[in-house]
Write a structure and sequence with these properties.
Shape: flat
Helix content: 40-55%
Number of helices: 3
Number of strands: 0
Largest sheet: none
């Protein structure tokens, strides 16, 4: 597959799937770039930041499914 074919296939994907492709490319770049430390050498802060980024990935696009009516208690 040529670079042009790859780009055309990515363009055909919905926006969320395009973001997944870019996230995966970022992951591969980090994994196979010698200038980045291996995961087992990350400090606690670096690992926590990556974990939070991955946990929150795509949440901005999720619709809000709860309203005030769903609350058991209302704070004043």
């Amino acid at each position: 597959m040529s670079y042009t074919e790859l780009v055309e296939k990515i363009k055909q994907l919905p926006g969320e799937k395009q973001r997944e492709v870019f996230d995966f490319v970022d992951y591969l770049t980090l994994r196979f770039t010698h200038s980045t430390p291996a995961i087992d050498t990350w400090n606690e802060q670096e690992f926590a930041e990556l974990s939070m980024q991955q946990a929150l990935r795509g949440m901005d696009d999720d619709p809000i499914v709860y309203s005030d009516a769903d609350l058991k208690e209302h704070w004043q």
